[in-house]
Design goal:
The complex is a heterodimer of chains A (about 250) and B (about 270).
Chain A (H helix, E strand, L loop, with lengths): L22 E3 L5 H14 L1 H4 L3 E5 L1 H5 L6 H10 L3 E6 L3 H9 L4 E2 L9 H4 L15 H4 L4 E3 L8 E4 L3 E3 L8 E4 L3 E7 L2 E4 L9 E6 L3 E4 L2 E4 L12 E6 L2 E6 L1
Parallel strand pairs in A: 1-2, 2-3, 3-4, 5-7, 6-8, 7-9, 8-10, 9-11, 10-12
Antiparallel strand pairs in A: 11-14, 12-13, 14-15
Chain B lengths: L2 E6 L7 H14 L4 E5 L7 H4 L10 H5 L5 H4 L1 E2 L6 E4 L12 H14 L2 E5 L6 H8 L3 E6 L3 H16 L2 H4 L6 E9 L1 H5 L6 H8 L2 E7 L2 H9 L10 H13 L16 H6 L3
Helix pairs in contact in B: 1-12
The chains are: A alpha/beta (about 250), B alpha/beta (about 270).
Chain lengths: ~250, ~270
């Protein structure tokens, strides 16, 4: 075993990932009632709930000024095979109790509730800041490619991506901003990959396999567009990709 | 200092080994000391096409592992004393090749030879990437059909990013297109991509078009590089290609259907 830490290569890295976890919304604070209905649910799909992670949502109780012991509800869930992974929407005392039990307290993405402000201090994981490329900070992140992008190659630009050659079939080009291609686009082009729906794709000849703006994509077969070997621009209008000749 | 040429394609069966044999023989016949190396370890073919399969004692892998010297492994061609063949091993696999080993062999050969032709295996795995890693020039052999063109395109991407020249920030590998198994009448019927179609997709300097020809199979079966069959269309195409590579200005042939009767007169209608 090497003991010199500095000689080790990077052995870990943190990445953000979005998972889907069942959330248990409680609307009464009577444990017997909760247990009864819980057993009914489990009876419907015993395998599904076995060892299932569950997030306990106390929002509805908090709004009604009802309270419940975090330790008791967690105990109840564990008894029936659930693995509670955290709580959200509880009051300060409940959040503190959860943390004391080593259970994370999640922030509530509330629209119209009175709670979010006082819950922030208990946020155990900071929300990833959403990066939206704006004109001001993107200018230095633009990328210029002067050679043909070959099949199997990928190009990513944090700002705009400008390509003064063709993009081959099987190549993939992505930009957080706009994409300009002064050649034939045969591969895949994805603009506004971080969600900028104002971004556009421009190319001298559109024969793409796939085009996407802000996650809205269309395949070649769905494009309903026959290449006329003329320059076009593609923009997003009301969640639909629009192709216009320039 | 030798010029290292890799003959590559990505896709199999397009004519890499035929081309390697033909151009190495062509360069040697023009008086340049040339060696051709088979990188297709485990599926060695070049020795068959060159007609020296019964003279293989040591091979590339033996030299890499210092089990034999280069001079023991090199086979001198019986038809042209400027040409040498370094065969691949049939009993090993491509993992037996190492970057350091290949680099050392190429450096040693560079002292003695003017041209080193590397016959790449198909695919984009170890054998193929090592065959191209040290190259100065790349002959990309492509058939006029979509899958071959796409594989060539992929190979061109790898050539521009994963070669020694790319890694050292030197002048990039010079890439040439060789369009093989071309049949003008099938292009006319729309069954094959035309030279223009392929050029438009790959945007590459065209070194030559090799027509689909029976003479290639005959040459392979008899262990004679097709370039030695000077009467055949494919042989002449390779003679032109070697001349163009050496800087001569030769007009392209075999692109058009034989319409004027001139070609058929000259080439016996093959």
């Amino acid at each position: 075993m090497p003991t010199d830490v500095s000689s080790l290569k990077t052995v870990l890295e943190f990445k953000t990932s979005t998972l889907s976890v069942p959330v248990l919304h409680l609307s009464v604070n009577v444990l017997q009632q909760i247990e009864l209905q819980l057993l009914e649910k489990i009876a419907q799909a015993p395998e599904f709930f076995k060892n299932s992670p569950v997030l306990i949502d106390l929002q509805k109780l908090t709004v009604q000024n009802l309270t419940i012991s975090v330790a008791e509800i967690v105990g109840l869930l564990r008894k029936h095979g659930f693995l509670p992974v955290g709580i959200r929407g509880g009051n300060e005392a409940q959040s503190a109790d959860a943390l004391a039990m080593n259970l994370p307290v999640y922030a509530y993405h509330a629209q119209n509730t009175s709670q979010p402000a006082e819950q922030k201090p208990f946020k155990s994981f900071p929300e990833p800041e959403k990066e939206v490329a704006t004109a001001a900070n993107a200018s230095s992140e633009n990328k210029l490619v002067t050679q043909q992008v070959r099949s199997g190659q990928r190009v990513y630009a944090k700002g705009d991506l400008i390509i003064t050659a063709s993009v081959s079939a099987g190549a993939e080009i992505m930009a957080e901003g706009n994409i300009h291609i002064y050649g034939t686009l045969r591969g895949r082009a994805l603009a506004g990959v971080l969600g900028n729906s104002e971004s556009r794709i421009f190319c001298s000849d559109l024969q793409a396999e796939l085009i996407s703006i802000a996650g809205f994509y269309q395949l070649r077969d769905d494009l309903n567009y026959q290449s006329s070997h003329k320059p076009v621009q593609i923009c997003l209008d009301n969640q639909t990709l629009i192709i216009k000749e320039i | 200092m030798a010029r290292i040429i890799v003959v590559t394609s990505g896709k199999g069966g397009v004519g890499k080994t035929t081309t390697s044999a033909a151009i190495s023989m062509g360069l040697a016949k023009r008086g340049h000391r040339t060696v051709v190396i088979d990188f297709d370890v485990g599926l060695r073919n070049l020795d068959l096409i060159m007609g020296c399969e019964r003279r293989v004692v040591y091979d590339l892998v033996n030299v890499i592992h210092n089990e034999a010297t280069l001079s023991q492994a090199l086979i001198r061609d019986k038809r042209c004393d400027q040409l040498y063949i370094l065969p691949a091993s049939q009993t090993r696999d491509k993992d037996a090749l190492t970057t350091e080993g290949v680099g050392r062999i190429l450096e040693e050969l560079s002292k003695d030879f003017k041209f080193i032709v590397c016959d790449s295996p198909a695919g984009i795995e170890r054998g193929a990437t090592l065959a191209m890693y040290f190259a100065d020039d790349a002959f990309v052999v492509t058939n006029p059909e979509v899958s071959s063109v796409r594989d060539s395109d992929r190979m061109l991407g790898i050539l521009s990013s994963k070669s020694r020249r790319a890694e050292n920030g030197q002048e990039p590998i010079k890439e040439y297109l060789l369009l093989s198994r071309y049949s003008p009448d099938r292009v006319k019927l729309g069954e094959m991509l035309s030279v223009e179609d392929v050029q438009e997709i790959l945007s590459l300097h065209l070194l030559g078009v090799i027509p689909e020809s029976k003479s290639v199979l005959n040459a392979s079966n008899s262990g004679t590089p097709v370039i030695l069959d000077e009467q055949s269309d494919a042989g002449q195409a390779y003679i032109d290609i070697v001349a163009r590579y050496l800087g001569e200005n030769k007009p392209h042939r075999f692109i058009e259907e034989e319409k004027k009767g001139l070609f058929s007169k000259l080439f016996g209608g093959k």
